[in-house]
Amino acid sequence: MVRNIFITFEGPEGAGKTSVLKEVTKRLENAHMEFLATREPGGIRIAEEIREIILNPANTEMDAHTEALLYAAARSQHLHEKVEPALQAGRVVLCDRFIDSSLVYQGIGRGLGVEKVRAINEFAIGRRMPDKTILFDLEPSIGLARIEANRKNEMNRLDVESLAFHEKVRAGYLQLAKEEPERIILIDANRPLDEVVEEVWLIVKSLIEEK
Ligand SMILES: Nc1ncnc2c1ncn2[C@@H]1O[C@H](COP(=O)(O)OP(=O)(O)OP(=O)(O)O)[C@@H](O)[C@H]1O
Ligand SMILES: Cc1cn([C@H]2C[C@H](O)[C@@H](COP(=O)(O)O)O2)c(=O)[nH]c1=O
Known about the structure:
It holds the Pfam family Thymidylate_kin. InterPro entries: P-loop_NTPase, Thymidylate_kin-like_dom, Thymidylate_kin_CS, Thymidylate_kinase. This protein is of the alpha/beta class. Helices cover 56% and strands 13% of the residues. The protein has a 5-stranded parallel beta sheet, sandwiched between helices. Adenosine-5'-triphosphate binds next to helix 1, helix 6 and helix 8.
């Protein structure tokens, strides 16, 4: 049975997207589901190399336009090389971040404007949008504290932005969720990890079953 569905995980830093994706992946494996779990920026060699450049804390001189274009370039390559083929093969695709991250981090956080950032992304990805997006909502101070508390988590060039930047990002996500309630499912990420995993698993399972 073809179950191609494109689901993205979005949210501010430390909201738990990566941790939850890992657990959901295990459950999909146990259910013998054909799926691809991937991330942005990255997921393939070229995009991982672009990721290194964007997130390197030493690259302090990077202009906001350059940053937006690099994210869009990584997204284009990742989409065409990995995501589209998986969807065409009938797989469930789960992706840790996608276009909404650019709309809020570059469009709102950096102040480039959502519509300008959307336009360069339309060039990068055409009409492809996620079927559903799970938005992990969390106060940025809590997410950043989670990252800092775990010494294994390195702070990247975006993590070290001011709290005010991260608060704009969160507000941007909540605004997007208001504008697109059909696509964006808002969840409260300020709960114990196992509770969040359970909720997200039920959402993913029902989306796949509805397909
Ligand atoms: N619900 C939770 N409660 C407490 N700690 C959590 C929870 N979810 C994740 N964490 C911890 O917070 C840190 C960040 O989690 P994770 O990497 O999953 O977040 P993320 O949303 O992917 O962050 P980023 O976008 O910055 O990569 C990790 O140390 C993780 O163990
Ligand atoms: C896709 C995308 C990401 N970002 C930011 C968000 C995070 O700070 C980093 C990615 O790190 P993570 O640990 O994998 O979450 O990049 C962005 O600003 N714009 C984007 O399009």
